[in-house]
Amino acid sequence: DLAKLQKECVSVETSIEQKRLERHNLLLACKVQNVQIELLQGKLEEISEALTEEESTQATTDVFELEAAFEIDYSSLPTDLKTIFFFLAFESSRKKARICRQDFEYVKRRRYDLFNQCFEHVSVKIDQIYKMMCQNTSAQAFLSPENSEEPYLDGIGYNCVAPGKRFMPMDNLSGGEKAVAALALLFAIHSYRPAPFFVLDEVDAALDNTNIGKVTNYIRDQSRKNFQVIVISLKEEFYSKADALIGVYPEQGECMSSQLLTFDLTSYPENTRREETLQPQQED
């Protein structure tokens, strides 16, 4: 759209320059042929004889600015000529208004189509993803625009029905239910134009162990097929399901610095990871 508008601006500027040149040639013809025209402001004698390619752009601009101040007196024209003149001006303005209206309607329609294309995709995906994350087909998630005619002008309503519960406003859901709903929305929007990877910062903070298991199962399943995920987490129930761990710790010295520890979990069976991570604590 920006490139299109830039082209239109260049086209309009070119048209304006062409009109200025045509006006200059008409005034110059009146001067050369000694055609007397009434000027309310300016004099024909001030008009340059000719504009050539050798003249500088600045000189041409100066001539056009000088002639722009000329004001022609049309009061002496016959009534029929005045009518034709104003009619042509009116028709020209109406044509420009029609073109502007058509351009506006095109942009409006294009905006609506692009928004709806994304909205319809996300509306379908969010319910599917929410069911997968909750691991329950009774779970529901749906979007509803506040303005159906121009949905991009107002808000979008988002509601979820958690498994085994009745419908209630989003504000009345628990912190964990809100977190699962927010992740479902995130993944649904992502599915429209996928990114190569996610960085999730403590998204499990409000989740209990049951919901952590559901969310990690969904993320692990999707990371095998659709995207990669880097998760910052302090909960063992979450990071024990990862393929690899990266630990950050401070190191004292002349100045404090951060160091990294890495640990590959892919060689450990899924059902023994938690026991492996718990073993040092049990020995203590």
UniProtKB/TrEMBL annotation:
SUPFAM superfamilies: P-loop containing nucleoside triphosphate hydrolases
Major place of residence: nucleus
The keyword Coiled coil is annotated on this UniProt entry: yes
GO biological process, alphabetically ordered: sister chromatid cohesion
Regions annotated as coiled coil: 2-57
InterPro entries: P-loop_NTPase, RecF/RecN/SMC_N
Residue ranges constituting the RecF/RecN/SMC N-terminal domain according to the UniProt record: 52-254
This protein's GO CC annotations: meiotic cohesin complex; nucleus
One matching Pfam family: SMC_N
Subcellular location: Chromosome; Nucleus
One GO MF term: DNA binding
Keyword list, A-Z: Chromosome, Coiled coil
Matching PANTHER family: STRUCTURAL MAINTENANCE OF CHROMOSOMES PROTEIN 1B, STRUCTURAL MAINTENANCE OF CHROMOSOMES SMC FAMILY MEMBER
Protein name: RecF/RecN/SMC N-terminal domain-containing protein
Organism, as annotated: Scyliorhinus torazame
